[in-house]
Amino acid sequence: xxxxxxxxxxxxxxxxxxxxxxxxxxxxxxxxxxxxxxxxxxxxxxxxxxxxxxxxxxxxxxxxxxxxxxxxxxxxxxxxxxxxxxxxxxxxxxxxxxxxxxxxxxxxxxxxxxxxxxxxxxxxxxxxxxxxxxxxxxxxxxxxxxxxxxxxxxxxxxxxxxxxxxxxxxxxxxxxxxxxxxxxxxxxxxxxxxxxxxxxxxxxxxxxxxxxxxxx
Length: 216
Ligand SMILES: Cc1cc2nc3c(=O)[nH]c(=O)nc-3n(C[C@H](O)[C@H](O)[C@H](O)COP(=O)(O)O)c2cc1C
Description:
- This protein is of the alpha/beta class.
- It is built from five helices and six strands.
- β1, α1 and β2 (60-66) form a beta-alpha-beta unit.
- It is globular and about 45 Å long.
- It starts with 27 loop residues before the first strand and ends in a 5-residue tail after the last helix.
- The relative contact order is 0.19.
- Residues 6-19 have low confidence and may be disordered.
- Flavin mononucleotide is lined by residues 36, 38, 41-43, 106-110, 137-141, 171.
């Protein structure tokens, strides 16, 4: 559900064709959230790198949610008009459909972008009982303070944040003019660790939800 739609069905994983439970081998649907919508943003460079890493995995199918493509108002409503519903339609079904999330976040003034908080606040059950991983970037902080704040927010959403993250300090200096990382071994390894943890939690929660719908 989002802020405007009461939930009527439990959040359960699809059954196998035989009806015996979730298909443990089915790839997890991973929604990658690009949370900077700033003019002149660096975020797409980070997104391109991460999407290239995620595309190599057979245990995920990947969809990008770019917050620059959705214009959600900061005025929350339980009864939004058609224009706001049209914006929600760009993001809410993708969030609901996802088995797992990776949030790409810069750090703004020791926190994360307002557009990301707004996306989180417009939704609720879409986050529940799902794992969340982080790729952060910024200046000297590498976005780590933004990530620590996001862990608190996602706990309130009944989401599970995975321990290991990918962090780019002084991000711009590490990529060339074509957006390629100059020395990707460490960040590629960090992405693998984070995605491995995300896959474990994603599969574990899928199986758990198939037998015990999350009660909230
Ligand atoms: C308003 C604003 C505040 C920022 N605050 C921080 C900060 O607190 N710590 C930090 O390490 N970098 C900070 N930065 C640097 C950004 O994290 C860095 O420029 C990053 O690339 C921004 O992501 P974006 O270009 O995708 O929006 C700030 C940048 C902006 C625009």
